[in-house]
Amino acid sequence: MDSAYLLVIDASPDHAQVLNSFLRNAGIAVRVVNASSFDELESVLKEKSPFLVVIGTQLPAALKIGQVLQAADLNSAPVVLQVNPEDTTQIEEAISTHPTLVISAGENDQLMRIVKSHMAGGKTTREFDDLSHKLEELQHRYDLLLDSARDSIAYIHEGLHIYANRAYLDLLQANSQDEIEGLSLLELMTPEDGTDLKKLLRDMNHDIFPEETLAVSINTIAKKKLKADLTFSPARFSGEQCIQMLVREQDENLVLQEELDRLRKTDHLTQMINRQTFTDRLSALVEEDRDDDLRSAVLYIETDGIEELQQDLGMENTDSYILDLANVITGCTQATDIPSRFCDHGFAVFIRRTEKSSLQEVGECILVSYSHHLIDLGDQTRTASCSIGMATLGPLTRDAKEVIAHARQAFKQASNNGNSMVRFKPAFTTVSSGEADRDWVERIRYALNNRDFYTVQQSIVDLEGENEGFFENRTFMREDDGDTPASEFMLAAERNDLGSTIDRHIIPQLMLAIAGTGDKHVIPLSSNSILDFSFPHWFQRMLSETEVEGSQLVLQISAISAESNLKPTSRVIEELQPLGCNFVLSEFDNDRKTVQLLDHLPVNMVKLRPGLAKGLSTNPTNQEIIRAVVRAVETHEITIIADEVEDASDLAVLWQCGVKLVTGDFLNEAPQVVGQ
Known about the structure:
The protein is of the alpha/beta class. It contains 24 helices and 30 strands. A hairpin with a 5-residue loop joins strand 9 (214-219) and strand 10.
């Protein structure tokens, strides 16, 4: 959905920020932009098309009010002028040159009502323009498709031709639309079976259409006779109800041609479509708009050890395995699915279901059914198994070749074990990759829609015996083939502005679990939430609604995110610390830039970089890094948390280094799960 922009003209950028916060807190989702020069003004008006221009009480020195009003007028942007009541000169200049709403400075409630009104009006206008444009585009595409169609098509209204495509004109030997328009269908055609064509037309005018084709003799414009089959269906043309008539000339060679075409597209052994036909059909499916409620995938399937079987049994007996697998695939799929003999040994199948789990079930059905089959080879009977690779399709799938390649890649992994199925997942990287991000975005959005995020609570143990009831929370995403930790998907989520959405999904259910316990919990925040001006207000509202004390929460921000977004991080801490919230910097080590963050951010704790505490007793390098961190935080009176502690020997080293808060799997016998 396109963003709604509000343009603010004021010498102070703070005015735009204050107005943005006020509107966001009021639940009005707008993007407030500021312009302080004429070039900026023109650029915003042209590129953002703001629905409203607000002129503050202090114009930038580089702008005159007449310039602003003229530019707004040229771009059809309504204007609201905020004035001090005593400034009559500015009011007179504004209302004399441009239709302008004038309000007193500080009348934020009045401004809010004006913004809501213009947003609604602008949205309606945009939606109408978009729909009109789409309708025109669809009509144009439809006309082009209709006119370029090989089939002969005509539109009939009250027994008269109102339109015919190029193929129909050629069939009737007409030179133009003028020759056919208004011509009676009864003058041209005589039914071969004696059907009353007049009655047929009357029935179709009452939406009673024949199910079978109608064989007719046609008299062309040039008085030539030809035989054809007619198919009728209801239609609209130029907004009017009419009859669409498809005309196919009877050809003695047609049946033969159709059979040759079928053979060209079909595998002779299995009678499934072949590789090229499957790829073509899949390409069309990838391009078309799909129902968001449907999930689609491609399965790639081969019999395990098929090459060895071919060597042992010969080509003919191996065909029995191929044919039997084809029959199993047919039995486990629906009529709407598209199975194919993709290559000598492999099958590719397109499937579509309402639930993602149902895609998995198709593959499991094939695995189980094929492994239970007995294959008769004349004097002996054998069993077999297969392996399956699955790749899901989504809005971001580029083309058929990509999804087929992913399915075959997953198959190679599955075939290492045999009789198994593997779903394709791109390799995780910290660097943005188009292919990887497309997959992550699709999986994250699916998980959000299905409430498939949850957290695991682990105790944070105080080696001095204090701080009981202290927990950290790790986020996971449920998936069909196993749950995925936040460490694998959160970077991709943040790159695609989904981190804040995940936070707002997880945090409320965490607060509900914490409420009334008196326990203290570490809750991770994404960089997207740090950059979201509305987040502190939303977080405060969640505290109020769940009746959780701010002192129960330690908000975790990664040192990398804080370093990149120092001012927004500082703003969030300043807004939430008065509520009692504490803050911890995660991924902390002795890097100079990381340590310098403590001079700028009033955090309460730091959490060591993952991996530093693993195998610590035998790693002198990591021991020295931890000691350096301890020395760096001493002057700031900051507590250190060590993560991923594996055994008691590591605990002893941490104690000697001066770290007293630790967590790890071996310290947590039964982690608590929230949201599952």
